[in-house]
Design a protein that fits this description.
The chain is mostly beta strands and 880 residues long. Among the domains are: 120 residues, no CATH class; 222 residues, Alpha/Beta hydrolase fold, catalytic domain (Rossmann fold, 3-Layer(aba) Sandwich). It is 12% helix and 38% strand. Strand 46 and strand 47 form a beta hairpin. The radius of gyration is 31 Å and the shape is globular. It starts with 5 loop residues before the first strand and ends with a helix.
Amino acid sequence: MIGLKKVILTFFVCLIGVGGMENVWAGDKTVRDFHEFELWHKLLQYGLSPSGEWAMWRIQAGETTDTLFVRNIVSGKEYKYKETSAPEFSKDSRWIVFSEPTGEDVAAGIAYQVKLVCLADGEEQIFRGIESFTFTSDSKCLILKGKNAGDAVELNLYDLEKKRIKNIANIQEYTVDPTGKYLAYTLKAEKGLSNSLEVLELNDYRLLFLENDKNGYEKLKWTDHGLLFMKVLSDSTGQKQGREIHVVRNIGNRQQVCCFAAEAWADFPANMKISEYYTPQWSADGKKLFFGIAPERYQGESRAEVTADVDIWHWKDQEIQSRQKNRYYLNRSRTYLCVWWPEEKRWRQLADSSLFDIAGISADGAFVLAVDDQPYRPHYRELHRDIYVIQTETGKRTRLLENTILSASFSREGKYVYYFKNKNWWAYDLAKEEYINLTAQVTTGLSDIYYDGPIDIAPSFGVAGWLKEDKAFWFYDEYDIWSVEPATLKLKRLTRGREDKITFRKFQRGVLTPDRNLLLRATGDDGASGIYRFDPKGHHRPLLYGAFGTLRLEQSADKKMNLLGWADNITAPELFVCDENLNRLQQLTHTNLRPSGFIFRKSELIRYKNSQGKELKGALFYPVNYREGQSYPMIVHIYERLSQHLNDFVFPSASDLYNTMNYVLQGYFVFQPDITYEVNRPGESAVDCVTAAVRQVLKREDIDPARLGLIGHSWGAYQTAYIITQTPLFAAAVAGAPLTDMISMYNSIYWESGRSNQEMFETGQARFRLPWWQISRQYICNSPVFQAENIQTPLLMIFGTEDQAVDWSQGLEMYITMRRLGKPCILLTYEGEGHTIGGQMNTLDQTGRVMDYFDYYLKKTVAADWILEGRTYLKKKGEE
C-alpha cells in the first residue's frame, strides 16, 4: 500500500478591486494529505438571466458535492440548492429550473427530480421521473420529458401561469414552434391501431392539426418556415418501404400542406429512396428545402459463401479495414443531396456517387460546396481533393480548386466562397464567377509563423467573420484584426496590436457586428490578457487588462449587465457582476476564504533561445512558501507549447497526475517550457529546446541542478523518454503512455479512429515527412528505444492496457530493453484503462506513486517498496 503524498489546505485570498490584489496569509505551515482537497472550493457553471436581474453559479467543494446559488443582483435575495445540474433561466427571467437528487436510495443509482422555482417568491414545484426539461421561448410553459419507456416517452406540459399540467403518453418525437405557442408530436399506437401526428396549442391544449396513419412519423422539425416531418411508409407486414417529406405551414390559420413523394416524380432515380439519415433543412428564405436520397440498402454476401468470420485486408483497399469498421455507420448512411422548391413544384438532385461529400450550403440556398477526394485515393498523408461549387438552380458544377489540401467556406450571406491559399485570403465571387485576392496589399504576413508541422503549407492566423450583406471580411495577422471590402478591395487595419505586441481577437461567439457591443480579446507577449471594447473609429478602450488566466463573460440580452469570471495563477476563479464597461464590480463569490498559512508567489515568464536562435518562452511556477536563499527541486512538464498557461489557476487534484498545483504544494518549482520542431527531428528538437530552457532557468540560484525531474503524457511522454537518452540533466523521469519505437509506431494503427499511424507521422504531430524506409536513420535516431543504452536517468512509465492511441506494447519495448541493459525502469500498467487513466482508484494510485517516485529521487525521502523491489504477481493476488 503506497503512502499517499501530502498537499495543503485551501488558501485565503482577499481581492481589493480587480486592478489590485493582495494575498493575506497567517504564518507558515506544512503540507497536508490528499483528502484535504475537499476543502478547496471551485467555481463551476455560471450564468445570467436574460434580463440581467438574476445571476446563478455553482460552487463545488472537493471532488463531488456542489451548491447552486441564485441571487438577485439588485436586491441581494439569494436561494441555495444542493447537488444540482443543468440549471436554466426562463426567457422572461421569472423562473429557474434544474435537476437535483431526490435523496432516496435507488438500487440502479441516484434518483433525480426536477425542481422549478419562482424567483419572485421562491415557490417550488417538484417533478419526478423526468429525463430532460426546457422552457418554451415565450416563457409560458415548461416542457418536461419523462424517462424512456421502450421507444416512447411521456411528455408533461406545465403551464407556468395557470399552474396546471397536461400529460401526454406514448410520444416518440416532439418539437415546439419558434414562438413557443404550438407543440407538435407523434404518438406511437398500440398494435393494430394507427399512429398519430398531433399539433397542440399550448395556451389551451386545443388540437389544431391531426393526422392518423398506419405509417410512422419522424424527423419532426419546426422552423420559421413551417412544420417539417417525414412519413415512414410500410408494407402490409410492417416493413419500412420508404419515406415522404411533408411541410405544414400556417398552422392555426389557413393551413397549407406540401408533400414530396418519390413516386410522384417521373425523374426520381430508380433503386433510390429518400434517406432517413439526412434531416431536411431550409434555405434562409424558406423557398428551398434540402434533403437526401440514398440507394436502396443491399444485402451483404450470401451466407452460403461466407464460411468464417474473416476480414480481408487487401493492399488495394482505399481505406484499411479498421478505418472502414470505424466509419461503418457513416458510410452506410451516405446520402446524395437534393433540393426541392415546394411552391414551384420542382426538385433537383445535386449530388451523386461521383460527387457526394457536401461541405456546405449557402445561406440563400443558391449554391452548394462539395468536395471529391476519390481521384486521390488511397490517402497516406494529408487529404487531397477537388472542391466544387454546385448551382442549385441549374445543377451546374464548377471546380473551384483542384488537387488541394485546402478547405473552403461560404461567406455569411452566401455571395462568396473564401479560402486561404498561397499565404493570402481569396474569395470566389459566385455571381461574377471571378477569383479575388482579398489580401494582396497586406504586408505583415497572414500565415501562422508558429506552425512547425510537417505539411508544407502553413495555416492562417484565422478569421473573425463577415459583416452583414458580405460587405466586408475580417481576418487576423499575428497581432491585429483587418477588414477588406471584397467589392472594392478597400483594406483597413482595425487594431494596433503589433506596436505593443498585443494580439487582438474577437471575444464573443456569434454574428460579427462592428459596433460598440463588440468586445475584443487581447493577449500580450508577456502573458497578460484582457478585454477591449471595439470602437468603429479605432479608439478601442481596454476594459480589463492584466496578468489574468481565466477571463469569461456572460451577458444579459441587452448586454448592459455582465457576469465576469476571472483568475490568475494564485487566485482561484471568482465571479463578479459588472456593467457594460466592466465597472461597478460586485463580487458574488468568495471561494477561498480560509486562512491556511501558505504563501503563493506569482508565476514568472522565462525567455530563452534554442540552438537555431528561435525565441521561446516558458512558464515557471514557484513552490508554496518560497523563501529566497533556499534551493528547491524542480519538475519540468513538457508537451509542445505550454507557456500560455502562465497565469492559469490550477485546482489541486488527487486524481490528476500532471497537475501543476500538486507539485507546487509539495515544495517543487514547476517549469513548462515551449518546444518548437524541425521536420524529421522531433526528439532532437525537444532535446534542443528543453535543455536550452532548463539551462536558462538554472542561472537562478534557487533551483538545485541535481534535483530535476521530467514529466509528460503521450507526446510529452515520448519527448520525456527521448530526452533522457540524450542528456543526464534529470534525476528522474515519468512518462505516461510514451511512443518509444517510431518505426513500429509508424506501422501500427490509431485504434480510436481506425486510421494508420502513417498519416499522423507524415502530416501530424510526429513530424516525419517521409516514410521510415526512406529516412530510417532519422526514425532510429529519434526513437527512445534505439537510444536506450545512453540512459542515465531512472524512468517510470504508465500505460493502460486498452490504450487505443498508443498501444502499451510501446511501453513494453522500452521496459524490456532497459531491463536487459540493467537500467532502472518501472512500468505501471492499469488493466482495462485507455490512453488516459480514468478509474477513480487507478487515478489516485498513479498520482500517489508518481509523487512517491519524485520525492524519492528529488527529495531523498524513504523509498516505497515498489520503487526499490517492485511487486510479485503472487503478492498482488494476496498469496505471498
